Amino acid sequence: MICHTYYSSVLYNLVQEDVLTGSTMKIGKGMIYNLDPQFVNSNNNDYHLKAISPCIDAGDPASPYNLEPSDNGGRINMGAYGNTDEAAVSESFPRISFLSPRKGRIFGKDTLIIAGSRFLDARGNGKVILGDTESPQYLLWKKDTIICITPAHLPDAVDITIVTNDGKTGYAENCFSFVPPLMTRYDPLFSFTS
Amino acid sequence: MIAEGTPGERILFTRQGDSGFWGCIAFPTTAGTSSSIKYCKVEYGKYITSLESKYYYGALSFRNSKVLLSNSEITANDSYGVFSNQTTFNIQNCVIAKNKEFGVYILSAFTSSYTIVIANNTITGNGVSGIYSGARCKIVNNIF
Fold first, then answer.
1. I want to staple A68 with a disulfide (CB 3.0 to 4.6 A). Which of A73, A87, A102, A152 is the partner?
2. Total domain count for chain A?
């Protein structure tokens, strides 16, 4: 939802639309844009978080989290139930909190940066799957960052799924789009003018 | 005013029957300096067009008061969810959703140097915008 504020500092929030406006607003660290917060059932007004939510353990590291259940990951959740006993608990599977870029060419071969948590220290048999196609090459695999090359894929918005070496799976829905290249129109009437 | 329920027994402010909207809970200048709304649910409210010649736009409306709003749900109201002007207040651990216009609308704080803290809330599905603020705010750990 749009957040329109003045004279404000804004940090460690998830914004489902990449829209933040305000002439003197200071955007700080820890923002998550355009990812589904994964509510349990927003249609039925249940805004608790599913265990796959990117908002789990993604709040300000300086915020207290002692009221969350014991398996709290050592960091507060974003949202209404952060630092309460209703907080969704941390679970040991990978979680995506940042992607760049959000679009790539249908021919693939773009470099994709994925940030998050619980990717484990090394790739091993881990893999990144865009839609139904695995990345053909991995440039970096750390516990909080993966850099890989996008595969070729038909034009579509796709999920990104991460499978870690221990077989745990995490994903972000419809978060990456394969797009055809822009066609440049050649018009001889407007070319080679002097 | 102090309205404090418990996690298991929230205080419900709602309409009578299955349709329509009521007014709002207004905190005018005379509301006192230690108001608290905790573990409450406010739904199907609207606004008041004139109380002490002032407009109260939100289902929860504060003017020149001092309020802590926490652990509450402000949903499905017919105007703003929360409206404030020249108020000292913080909002934390609230669900502010599906209100017809703004989720939270802040005209100004009690003083220009005061920072309103909006922390750990889920503010989503509101008709116009999640937050509009003309005051200095610290907005942290929220989901929009």
1. A87
2. 1
